[in-house]
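Hi R.,

As promised on Friday, here is the backbone we talked about, encoded as structure tokens. Could you run it through your design pipeline when you get a chance and send me back a sequence?
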């Protein structure tokens, strides 16, 4: 998961680590750069699966991401994937979060 480095409550700002290869969505849609190899794609899928199993089996309260998409999967310099926006939906009452997540 993406590491939270700090927060500034006065401005409602969260500071996360910088992941230089952007999001998985960016990497899959880039027309001018070398596409991700199938080896990278399978490794990223396995990493995401591992994180989801961890989140879903967390005790005492399992965590469901509720907005997992390529734009929320970030890649570091070595294309190691990290899930972002984990748990932000839990900060909002479920009735409001459910409305904002419907597209």
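Update: got your reply. Pasting your designed sequence below so it's all in one thread:
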């Amino acid at each position: 998961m993406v590491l939270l480095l700090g927060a500034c409550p006065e401005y409602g700002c969260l500071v996360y680590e910088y992941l230089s290869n952007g999001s998985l969505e960016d990497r899959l849609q880039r027309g001018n750069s070398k596409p991700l190899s199938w080896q990278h794609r399978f490794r990223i899928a396995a990493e995401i699966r591992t994180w989801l199993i961890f989140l879903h089996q967390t005790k005492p309260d399992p965590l469901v991401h509720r907005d997992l998409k390529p734009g929320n999967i970030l890649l570091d310099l070595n294309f190691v994937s990290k899930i972002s926006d984990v748990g932000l939906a839990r900060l909002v009452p479920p009735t409001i979060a459910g409305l904002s997540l419907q597209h």
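One thing I noticed while checking it: The longest strand covers residues 4-8.

Thanks again,
M.
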